[in-house]
Amino acid sequence: MKKILLLSLAAACLWSCKQPSEKEPVDYVNPYIGNISHLLVPTFATIQLPNSLMRIYPSRNDYTTELLDGLPVIVTNHRERSAFRLSVTQGDELRPVIRTSWDQEHITPYSYDVQIADNSIDVRLAVSHQSAIYEFEFQDPSKPATVLACSDRGEMQTAGKQFCGYQQISQNMRIYMTGEFDIEPEASGVLNEGRISGETKTEGRRVAVAYRFPAGTKKVSLRYGISLISTDQAANNLNREQQGFDLKAVAEAGRQTWNKALSSIQVEGGTEDQKTVLYTSFYRTMERPVCLSEDGRYFSGFDGQVHEDSGVPFYTDDWIWDTYRAAHPLRALLRPQEEENIIASYLRMAEQMGTNWMPTFPEMTGDTRRMNSNHGVAMVADALHKGLSVDAEKAFEYCRKGIEEKTLAPWCGNAAGWIDDFYKEHGYIPALREGEAETDPNVSGFEKRQPIAVTLGTAYDQWCLSRIAEFLGRSEETGKYLKLSYDYKNVWNPETKFFHPKDKDGQFLPDFDYRFGGGIGARDAYDENNGWTYRWDVQHNFANLAQLMSGREEMIRNLDQTFAEPMGRGKREFYEQLPDQTGNIGQFTMANEPSLHIPYIYNYAGAPWKTQKRVRQCLNTWFRNDVMGVPGDEDGGGLTSFVVFSSIGLYPVTPGFPVYNIGSPLFSDVRVNLPGGKTFHLVAKDCSEANKYIQSATLNGETWGKPWISHEDVVSGGTLVLQMGPRPNKAWGAAPDDAPPSAKPLN
What we know:
This protein is of the alpha+beta class and 747 residues long. It folds into two domains: 30-260, Distorted Sandwich (Beta-galactosidase, Chain A, domain 5); 265-651 and 659-738, Glycosyl hydrolase family fold (Up-down Bundle), CATH 1.20.1610. The protein has 20 helices and 38 strands. A ten-stranded antiparallel β-sheet has the order 3-7-8-9-10-19-14-13-12-17. It has a six-stranded mixed β-sheet with strand order 20-33-34-38-35-36. Helix 6 (327-334) crosses helix 7 (336-352) and helix 11 packs antiparallel against helix 12 (475-484). The longest helix is centred in the middle third of the chain and has 22 residues, at 451-472. The chain starts with a helix and ends in a 22-residue tail after the last strand. The relative contact order is 0.09.
């Protein structure tokens, strides 16, 4: 009996030893989610440490692309530009870019493994912040060779197993690369008409250097650093981050970096797929903006100069029209010092551009002024009222100048013009009547005036400016900009109860269709979305919007109708005109950022249970663990930060108010690990797919009946307990006084 017992224990031990170790947050990340787009741009499978300059994704359009255009070296602008190309071959033919088949691919946030050339070459990659390392293993080692090429204009040079070069990525910006192979090639030099020449340096468009390794070479490693300052600095970055050719060490360091970052949110309950979607979305929010500081210096595309960073890292490549809504608030909560540094970077950009205008769309090469409005002001107001350290005086002035001195015309960085003068006098951007010619040269022929989108967006920006003035104790300016924040009322049509384009004479455009009016992307009236979306674009004042709609019950009916209203045309016709408005539930679009707060508006109207229903519906319908699991353009965290917040039961509807709306968490236990060692704990008792409705709640042991909590409740390490059930408690959080805050009424 004793022998049998010992054998049983031994078998149990052996079985347990074979069980996979418990998954950590980084193990849940699936970079392939969304790599096939529903219509426009896919979500790329990116290999990159949090907010780092070194970022890479496979050199192809998406997961369905048959061939790779060589191997990637560095992506220099989110989803748009790549510098350099690396090609690996076992054949005689050498070209700057060798297109190749790919198979057996595996991507993590920090590593990339793939078989290329009909499974005859194994490729492995690991990244650090400003460097990377490749390994190539040849199944047929008779003719191993590699080619390094510029993908545009640049310079390449080689000396034995070492190489360096640069590529021009804008008129005033270069990306530099320095690196080396682990073994000496038998031949190296400039690639000239398919042959390795005796030259060691070349300059021009798509120039390349090539390396032929001795026959019998089974494996070759290549490590390199990148820089925006110089090839010497690229070498410094490489040697700071890597010692030798240890790919496993670089990969393990990257894994630990990601795991530490992602572990600031820890969840229990839910499904494995829900955890995968959560942590993948969280990883997406930390792709951008990217840190450009290199040993205390950085190159700025905003003035073309190298600067000392004075201990405050410099960040850029941030599409603020998308990211101010949830990505910046998520960072302000979880990584406040980083958010402070990002805002400080914005203030530097304003100065470096020579205008002191707050940037709106800062990219690697400068502020492209894409989209509309000036939502950097929201980022500042939100940070200040959440206790972050920001130069409020300077930020107020730069935000004010950006709104008042720069034109409000979309996609334009010029000084204010005719439509701006009109806006300041009348409080709205005038729409053109059919056939009416454009009179303001600042207006793009394709992007148009976007009159409703700009009017509503600027009203919100003015409210955010009033919040900064309030923080500074400037009562006169607080009142001035609070009054201007009501400008949305100037384009409200009380008969239709939609925001309706109005001409320069103050007349609403006749016979206007809120679904299909406004041309391509509805830009003659709105922007990328139709009137059903912009009906709800008053982020700062839903209390007043309810009044405009004749009360909270009418607001609820209008919200319900948004989710129920048919598309009105077949999908082909609908998306031909509104290609950004995918992820539909009725006229609601999950795929575009101006819609993200709409499911939460029920909290303001006395029906929080419908917010709970809609949030679950949106998450379960449109965000999934598969290659089509992102419904639209992800835009560097703009969309996926909605998933992070909503999955844990909270959402920052109004950046500028230090509060979070409560939705319906996917997980029964959520721990948000905060700087300073505190933890916010959310418990959703009996949470399940069916039990999505809040029955009751306590906050720090006290009964809580509001569908929102304050930022202070979270960062102080509070505990929110939600009792969940399968049917709604329609009374919970429904009283008018329970609604989340809205802008102050005008005196």
